[in-house]
Structure to design on (263 residues):
């Protein structure tokens, strides 16, 4: 499939102050792992990692995307991508926590987005836009049909997130054929509620998950309690073909190309 990590800088797109590019070698990878540690450990309360770097066995299998300021080259965001087809989903990061057998027969290319984070001192929504633009380029260039990952909520107290979990249960559950089943020891099933607190639910929703759902994405019917990362996370999936045309046009504008097979 298209993009590969390499020694030369591969810029995916530039928008205003920011650009997205592929990590080029060990220095870039260490920079992304350092930012991940700062976000997930220093600010998010995950268990500390040696050397101040968030490293795991999936890093060597992934393509890493960096979002940085054009002039200063300060790293302001990053994520990683793991491409696969069909039964390869059993070797994904998410498969450590969910039974994904319902997706094992999916016949078209899919990609897992993981370790998505934005610098804690940056509050510019353009960083997220550039990240989605880079993802759009990747999806188009690699004919990806399905995008998935784990959407995280900081902390492990499910009562704190009752409004948003009720909202997910009422409006955004996975199609039965694809629904992730329980694969972790500590989970929180979504109970649902007769009356939704829509405002509170939307306010609690992480920006990345909000973007997935706005494009027609869906979630598992339970959250996993991840003590190591100090998060509650839900499996999140998106079939590219179901993205509304207006959102496709917006993504095309950001990416500066003709992504997602849109005409």
């Amino acid at each position: 499939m298209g993009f590969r990590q390499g020694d030369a800088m591969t810029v995916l797109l530039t928008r205003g102050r920011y650009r997205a590019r592929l990590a080029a070698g060990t220095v870039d990878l260490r920079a992304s792992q350092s930012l991940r540690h700062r976000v997930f450990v220093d600010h998010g309360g995950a268990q500390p990692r040696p050397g101040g770097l968030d490293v795991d066995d999936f890093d060597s299998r992934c393509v890493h995307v960096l979002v940085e300021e054009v002039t200063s080259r300060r790293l302001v965001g990053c994520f990683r991508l793991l491409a696969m087809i069909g039964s390869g989903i059993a070797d994904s990061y998410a498969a450590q926590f969910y039974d994904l057998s319902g997706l094992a027969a999916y016949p078209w290319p899919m990609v897992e987005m993981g370790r998505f984070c934005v610098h804690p001192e940056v509050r510019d929504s353009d960083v997220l836009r550039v990240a989605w633009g880079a993802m759009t380029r990747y999806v188009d260039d690699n004919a990806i049909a399905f995008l998935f990952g784990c959407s995280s909520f900081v902390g492990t107290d499910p009562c704190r997130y009752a409004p948003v979990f009720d909202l997910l249960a009422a409006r955004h559950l996975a199609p039965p054929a694809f629904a992730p089943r329980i694969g972790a020891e500590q989970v929180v099933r979504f109970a649902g509620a007769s009356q939704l607190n829509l405002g509170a639910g939307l306010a609690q929703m992480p920006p990345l998950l909000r973007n997935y759902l706005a494009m027609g994405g869906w979630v598992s019917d339970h959250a996993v309690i991840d003590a190591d990362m100090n998060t509650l996370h839900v499996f999140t999936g998106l079939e590219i073909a179901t993205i509304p045309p207006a959102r496709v046009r917006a993504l095309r504008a950001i990416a500066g190309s003709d992504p997602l097979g849109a005409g």
